[in-house]
């Protein structure tokens, strides 16, 4: 009987020197790094559109509040809120707000525009927990703006 030997491919030659020095190697990706697509949101954020919506809604709401509250403590609250909202709009123009905060603020403004005050207040609470350290001045103003607009619509 004859035995048939399976032919295997020849073993690659081993070379000790590859021409690359391990000390000058750069690590592009660590073995334990998750892919970046995990952290990116499925929805795209259009900063320009968000900024325009925020500016439009805040301006209209401030104008409505200024027309309805012309005297007393409410007028002082409107004046202070106007100052805070102007600060917010300037920060947006200077691109001083993170994308996720800007997007959440846009959602809040859309809820405010639809007169969904409960939804706007929920979004405000989320913004307070997310961005209070950096954005406390205008966050207080947004809360007052929601409250003032809610008083007008009662």
UniProtKB/TrEMBL annotation:
Gene3D superfamilies associated with the record: Functional domain of the splicing factor Prp18 (1.20.940.10)
Coiled-coil positions: none
Domain SRA1/Sec31: 43-152
GO cellular component: nucleus
Database matches in InterPro entries: SRA1/Sec31, Steroid_recept_RNA_1
BP term (GO), one: regulation of transcription by RNA polymerase II
MF-aspect GO terms: transcription coactivator activity
Pfam families assigned: SRA1 (PF07304)
Annotated PANTHER family: STEROID RECEPTOR RNA ACTIVATOR 1
Protein name: SRA1/Sec31 domain-containing protein
Organism: Mortierella isabellina (Filamentous fungus)
